């Protein structure tokens, strides 16, 4: 007779999870072995697999339990990571893969986390845009770059940036100067001692480069340069 499931025991930390212990059953001239714990699973998953004491530990059952345990570990890891900081689905997938979880388990974990409402790429992208703009003025090119770096899907990034453009348009139509923060950024940069030591053309080039790295378009950069450098007579 081969090995069997010796025991399903609730864990001390979480009674909703059980350890699966496998060992040798009693036989003539041999006492039953204590065996060893081969997996820890949610109670409902153990029930789905119809695990119970004295069930024969076949190769097929071992494979099914190992697979279920891998999926469970990936899901728990995903919940821990998403609970500590917001991230996109792509970011979470990268971290789970780097942690050594199998691709199938990663996919399953992402789907389960998504069904729980803990993964929302659009909400994450909107928050990232707000956070970036709150820190410093930024143009659309830089916003897109940051969204791509955070593994936001291109389609989601396009939609969120379209919302951002629509918001700017509505604010502009209401009479707001939507470029005011970019101009203030340029004025502040132009007034630093290191900038003031440069000749006018070098100052213009450096300021233009700083604005471009913040992702601003040519129209905004041109206006910001004129207003930032005008007091020095370079506009």
TrEMBL record:
<comment type="function">
    <text>Modulates RecA activity.</text>
</comment>
<dbReference type="InterPro" id="IPR053924">
    <property type="entry name" value="RecX_HTH_2nd"/>
</dbReference>
<dbReference type="GO" id="GO:0006282">
    <property type="term" value="P:regulation of DNA repair"/>
</dbReference>
<dbReference type="Pfam" id="PF21981">
    <property type="entry name" value="RecX_HTH3"/>
</dbReference>
<protein>
    <recommendedName>
        <fullName>Regulatory protein RecX</fullName>
    </recommendedName>
</protein>
<comment type="similarity">
    <text>Belongs to the RecX family.</text>
</comment>
<dbReference type="InterPro" id="IPR053925">
    <property type="entry name" value="RecX_HTH_3rd"/>
</dbReference>
<dbReference type="InterPro" id="IPR003783">
    <property type="entry name" value="Regulatory_RecX"/>
</dbReference>
<feature type="domain" description="RecX second three-helical">
    <location>
        <begin position="120"/>
        <end position="161"/>
    </location>
</feature>
<feature type="domain" description="RecX third three-helical">
    <location>
        <begin position="181"/>
        <end position="225"/>
    </location>
</feature>
<dbReference type="GO" id="GO:0005737">
    <property type="term" value="C:cytoplasm"/>
</dbReference>
<dbReference type="Pfam" id="PF02631">
    <property type="entry name" value="RecX_HTH2"/>
</dbReference>
<dbReference type="InterPro" id="IPR036388">
    <property type="entry name" value="WH-like_DNA-bd_sf"/>
</dbReference>
<keyword id="KW-0963">Cytoplasm</keyword>
